[in-house]
Amino acid sequence: MDIDLEHPAERIWRALTEEKLLSQWLELPGFAPVGEAEVTGIEGQRRLAMLWGNDELSTRLVWELSPTPDGATLTLRQSCVYGEWEDEEREEVRAAYDAVLHERLPAILDWLAFQEVDLNAPPPGSPAGPVTEVIPFVAPADHRKPRARWVVALSTAGLVLVAIVVVAALSGGNEEAPAAPPQTGAAPSPPGISAPGGVAGLGTGAASPTPSASPSTTPTPSRTPTTAPTREGTTAPAPQPVLAAAYETTEQGLLRPGFEGEVTVRNTGKGAATEWAVVVTLRSSVARVTDVSGANFRQEGSKVTFTGAPLAAAASLTFQFEIGNSTLGDPGPTACEVDGKPCS
């Protein structure tokens, strides 16, 4: 059977090889569940062969993908290895395939395509660069008048403050103000308030500019610069750790989706590393960590963060992990970093 699909071959290959996706659309009557299929051959992302059947009938399925200008053509060939179809059974299987390939598979592909859509991207034909939409702010009716009264009050207070500053500047800058008539027994001006043409705290009737002989109760701050105390010694900086990591794919899943990897973390610095983190980026966001030995992990989408015990200076440690639910023939992660530095 041949079917033309308006999707790229890479997306169709995911639907064929990722177990979680395959089990959502490939379901035929009279056969064992898809999880029990045995993959017998794979050629890049173009051809996939598998054995599928039950105790009475075993068949070989061969899927082939051929790119087209509008997407790709998916070709299915199925033949009996042992056992034989009756004519009626053959027609039932063909009818089931027809519904699966024309309804269930396109639905899964459309769902995958929707996940790849960038909702923040500008629409086709729009000018390049971000588009800013200006939305005018309209204050609620019940808040407009109180806000206006506050604005008037603040504006009035501002004008009063400006007037006070101007008057103070004019009075302080008038050097030719007439002297006040001499007063006998006048009380001194209150501290902190300057009499016109005088100095704060002094009367204006004195003939001599010599300040009052009475001792001042306010200490005069010394203007002599002080010298900061000299430190007896300087503490040497603590030794720092220097981390590096090496990654290796120890087993590649040719007959099952996934792979196994190993990471060695080394501390080449002179200080101990109280904590460390190795971030591994997987090729598929649906791939999952199924087993870890020698470290803890946290997975967010396609990124997996491994952490572990403190690492002493000049020491190293190794941990292993297993990835499942990935594509067949997955060669390993796309990136590996330790503290922001790439692994070797």
Structure notes:
This protein is α+β, with helices and mostly antiparallel strands and 344 residues long. It contains four helices and 14 strands. Strands 1-5-4-3-2 form a five-stranded antiparallel beta sheet, with helices on one face. The chain is elongated and about 90 Å long.
SS summary, helix count: 4
| Average pLDDT number | 74
Largest sheet report: 5 strands, antiparallel
Low-confidence stretches: 148-155, 173-178, 183-217
Helix-strand category: alpha+beta
Quote the CATH topology of one domain.
Alpha-D-Glucose-1,6-Bisphosphate, Chain A, domain 4
**Measured distance between first and last alpha carbons:** 47 Å
Number of strands: 14
| CATH C-level class of one domain | Alpha Beta
Oligomeric state of this protein: single chain
Do you know the CATH architecture of one domain? 2-Layer Sandwich
